[in-house]
Structure formats: C-alpha cells, structure tokens
Q: What sequence folds into this?
C-alpha cells in the first residue's frame, strides 16, 4: 500500500492530470479519482454511467489492482464512460 | 578638421580583427561558445548585415526614440487613461512585462557573447549595439511596469517573475535559458535573432501594438513599437549567419531552424495567442492570432526557407493543426488554473466573443465550446468551486506546458521517451523530437509536477504549490471581469 502518482486523462478532456492513487486501488477506484478532475468540471456528467480504465489502449477490468500492472510513476492512464 | 564620412571609414573599422600571438585561436574563441565547427574560418569574411550603424548614429537615434517613448508615457500617465482600460488589456500588459522584461536582460548576455566570441569582427562590432538595444528594452520594461504599480501590484512581476518558479514562467525561462543563455553564437543567432526576433516578436510587438492602440493604451503601443524598431535591426544578425551556415552545413541550418521555430511557436501560443483572441476587447481586435500568424510569420518563414534552399519543417502539418487549436487549449488552461497566475485572465467567451471565435476558427465550438459550456453552467448554478483546479495538469518535459496544450483535445495522446532510466512525457511529436536530438541538454530539468512528487514543494497541497510559485494573495489570478460575461447564458442554453 503506497501512494502512487499517475497522469490520468479522462477521454474527451483536454489535459491529463497528476492524480494521486494508491497501489492497492482497483481500476474502479482509480477511475473515480481520475474522473473527479474532469467530469462535471469540463466534461458533462452522464448519470448512471460508470467508468472504465484503459492502459496503453487496452481495457483493464475494474477489479484489477493498480500495483499488479507494473506501471511506473507518472505513467498515463485513460478513463472513459463505460461503453 | 574635416570629419570623414561614415562610408569612408566604416568597413575598415568593422573589419579590425585580432592577430593572435600569445593565445591559440581555439582558446580565445572556444568552439563551444562560437558554434562555428565545420565552417571554414575564411567563410566568415562574407558575413554582412545591412544596417551599417556607427556609435554616433546609434546614440543619436536611440536618444530620440527614448525621448519619444518617455514623453508619451508621462502624458499617458497624467491622463489617467490606463485606469479606464478594459481589465483584459491590463492582463495583457502584466503578462507582457512579466514574460519579456527579464528575457530582454538575458538577451544582453547573448549579444554580449556575440560581441566577444562571434567568428567575424563585423558581427562582434554590430552586436555591441544589439547589447545596448537589449539593455534599453529591459530598462524600459522595468520603468513602465514600475509606473503601473499604482494600478496593480501584479506589475511587480516585471521584476519578480524570473526569480520565481511560477509554472508559466518556468516555461518561458526554459526556452530563454536555452536560446539566450546557453547557446553558441551561431545557434543563438538562428534561434533568437532570426526565428524569435525577426519572426515571432512581430506577434508581441506589431500585433499587440495594433490591438493596444485600438484598446486605447497609446503608451504601451508606442513602447512596443519602439522596441520593435531595434529588434528589426539587430535581428539581421540572424540572416547574415544563416547565409553562411546554409552554404556550409545545410543539415544543421535546417535542424536549428526547425527546432527554434517550434519552440518559439509554443511560447507565443501562451504569450500572445490568448491575448489576441480572448483578452483584447472584441471591438478592438484587428486580426485573429491565426490570421496574424499566417500573414506575418508563416508566409515569411516559408519564403525565407525557400530563399536559402531549405525545406519546410517535417512537422508542418502538426504545426498548422496546432495553429487552429493550441492557444485555445492554453487559454482554457490559463483560465481554469487561474489561482496559479499572477494576473487576472479574461475568459473571452461571452456570446458575442464566442461568435467571433467560431467565425475565425470553424471547429472551435466542437473542440472547445462544449468544455466551456460545463464551466458556464457551473458558474451560473452557483457551483464556482467546480471551476477551480484540485491538482496540476500533466506537463511536457520539453516546453514545460501542459500535455494537451499543443493540439485539439481529440488528438491528445501520449508522446514519451526513455533516457537514463527515466521516462519523459511530451505535449507533441515535435517536442519529443527536439528532446531526442539532445537529451543530455534537457534531461536533468524537472518540471513542476516532478518537483511536486519529488518532495520539493511542501506542504503537498495547493497552498504549498502557490507558495512555491511565489503567488501571493494580492496578485493571485481570478476572472478579470468578475464572471459577468457568464450572465449572457443565464436566459437560455449555451452555444
């Protein structure tokens, strides 16, 4: 369990953000932490729709833990509304 | 006693050179500062510039220019007209003085390097006047900003900015440290005199001068126009140098131009793009940033490249796309991260302004308007906290500007490089390419995000970040029109 900085981009927003996540966070938790900087601030909310995470363009299941992905600090993670 | 005409003595005087006997040529003119490796020594005999200035002429002309600039400044000050200007224009003035004054002082160092180490005595002679020009520009910036302190403490940033680690200023310093303080004579002449001064300063000193005049700031307009007359003269050092470089090392000439064009463009997307398209009051705008770029910079750059047998930069399509989008992204970022600024930005998206933006940039609504719509709704529904940032944007390891600030948001994707076991992030392919050309030149620099996660900024929160950047409550940025522009949208849907 350790703080871990990533660059999180909510797809459709114009910048990725520095987001502090935890190595024990699931992708669902990571998605929430990334989305909070974009959705409702510049990206319109979509009520009832959850989020999903992509790493290097590949969808990652919501229950996968960040620490298992072998990422380096400030690696880029994409989040979007669940399709 | 009769005095010789200037033309009777000028060529002899400017060609006076050292005949070295006590030191070696390489010790007196180190290659690292001269930057002329690979160019035959005698090639520099043809280095020539058209202005042919003598010290007597220079002093007489500059004295007249300074007298004019200060006379207008004093008259304008007495009129109290500055206080009546639109706050958007005041933001332009503050940003201009903070972003350029210390850079002018750094340019003294570059011109001084020419005066000492340039490979031609003619170049060393004319550079002395360039050095005096830059001293004048720095002093004028300080004098004007000092007078305006009574209008806002933010003008103190003319003096203070380069002594802080404010994120935008870090980006400005990253470029100027590179091309003014850390460049050889040849590299500096191409990057600074030719690309920056002959090309891009037209944005700041011609376009902004015209907009400032229409906005009513006669003094600012007069100041920057006067500075530009100096820039136009000493910028000629760039052409004289390119002439020789392109003849003897075309590949290096192309690379230097391509690097410096992109680096300068990214900076002016911050310094001038929002100023022209968002901060200048709508009725006072002459050309859009893109229109001015195409007319004054792009056409000229293409002609110049053709004249010297060089090609357009490989990234030309990316550049043209950036011309449509980059400064809109920068503007959105400046406004959203406004507490991190030392000036009050203008949103510039009232309904009338939005109509103008859509006319000038047909894809503006689809790319940028929809993001502003969410902000506007938050303002008008009392959710102002949602219009403020809670973290930092990801930053480019080359230009230091946010990832996403170079292109359309639909084109946003990662650009990275590995060097020395560290991963670097870039806003665009050209920034990635520039880093790759000389990674050892840029690799050790840490951007603001890396300083933050590296523990240099404490406490690790917004207050700690603002303190690190030198932002104090009396200068902290907020919407310069107090959000009144959003009233436009209260009655009906946005857009």
A:
């Amino acid at each position: 369990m350790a703080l871990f900085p990533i660059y999180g981009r909510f797809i459709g927003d114009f910048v990725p953000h520095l987001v502090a996540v935890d190595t024990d966070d699931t992708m669902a938790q990571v998605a929430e932490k990334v989305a909070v900087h974009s959705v409702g601030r510049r990206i319109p909310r979509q009520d009832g729709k959850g989020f999903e995470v992509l790493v290097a363009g590949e969808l990652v299941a919501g229950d996968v833990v960040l620490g298992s992905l072998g990422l380096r600090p400030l690696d880029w993670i994409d989040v979007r509304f669940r399709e | 006693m009769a005095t010789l005409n200037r033309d009777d003595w000028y060529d002899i005087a400017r060609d006076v050179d050292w005949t070295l006997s006590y030191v070696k040529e390489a010790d007196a003119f180190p290659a690292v500062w001269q930057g002329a490796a690979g160019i035959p020594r005698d090639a520099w005999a043809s280095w020539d510039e058209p202005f042919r200035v003598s010290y007597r002429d220079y002093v007489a002309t500059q004295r007249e220019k300074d007298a004019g600039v200060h006379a207008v400044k004093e008259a304008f000050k007495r009129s109290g007209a500055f206080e009546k200007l639109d706050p958007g224009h005041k933001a332009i003035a503050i940003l201009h003085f903070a972003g350029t004054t210390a850079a002018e002082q750094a340019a003294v160092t570059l011109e001084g390097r020419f005066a000492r180490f340039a490979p031609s005595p003619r170049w060393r002679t004319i550079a002395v006047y360039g050095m005096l020009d830059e001293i004048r520009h720095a002093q004028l910036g300080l004098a004007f900003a000092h007078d305006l302190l009574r209008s806002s403490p933010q003008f103190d940033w003319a003096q203070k900015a380069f002594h802080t680690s404010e994120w935008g200023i870090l980006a400005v310093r990253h470029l100027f440290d590179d091309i003014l303080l850390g460049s050889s004579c040849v590299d500096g002449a191409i990057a600074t005199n030719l690309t920056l001064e002959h090309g891009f300063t037209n944005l700041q000193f011609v376009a902004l001068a015209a907009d400032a005049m229409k906005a009513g700031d006669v003094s600012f307009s007069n100041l920057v126009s006067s500075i530009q007359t100096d820039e136009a003269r000493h910028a000629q050092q760039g052409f004289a140098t390119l002439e020789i470089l392109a003849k003897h090392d075309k590949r290096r000439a192309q690379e230097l131009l391509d690097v410096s064009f992109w680096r300068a463009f990214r900076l002016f997307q911050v310094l001038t793009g929002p100023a022209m398209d968002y901060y200048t009051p709508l009725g006072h705008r002459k050309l859009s940033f893109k229109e001015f770029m195409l007319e004054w910079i792009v056409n000229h750059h293409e002609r110049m490249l053709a004249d010297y047998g060089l090609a357009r930069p490989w990234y030309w399509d990316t550049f043209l796309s950036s011309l449509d989008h980059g400064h809109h992204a920068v503007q959105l970022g400046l406004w959203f991260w406004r507490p991190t600024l030392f000036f009050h930005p203008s949103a510039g998206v009232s309904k009338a302004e939005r109509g103008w933006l859509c006319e000038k940039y047909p894809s503006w609504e689809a790319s940028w308007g929809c993001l502003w719509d969410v902000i506007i709704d938050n303002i008008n529904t009392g959710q102002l906290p949602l219009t403020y940032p809670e973290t930092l944007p990801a930053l480019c390891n080359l230009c230091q500007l946010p990832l996403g600030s170079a292109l359309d948001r639909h084109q946003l994707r990662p650009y990275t490089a590995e060097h020395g076991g560290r991963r670097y992030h870039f806003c665009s392919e050209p920034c990635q390419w520039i880093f790759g050309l000389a990674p050892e030149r840029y690799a050790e620099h840490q951007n603001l995000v890396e300083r933050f996660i590296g523990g240099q900024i404490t406490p690790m929160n917004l207050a700690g970040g603002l303190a690190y950047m030198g932002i104090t409550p009396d200068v902290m940025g907020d919407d310069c029109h107090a959000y009144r522009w959003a009233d436009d949208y209260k009655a009906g849907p946005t857009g």
User: Anything to note?
Assistant: Chain B has a mean pLDDT of 94. DSSP finds 21 helices and two strands in chain B.
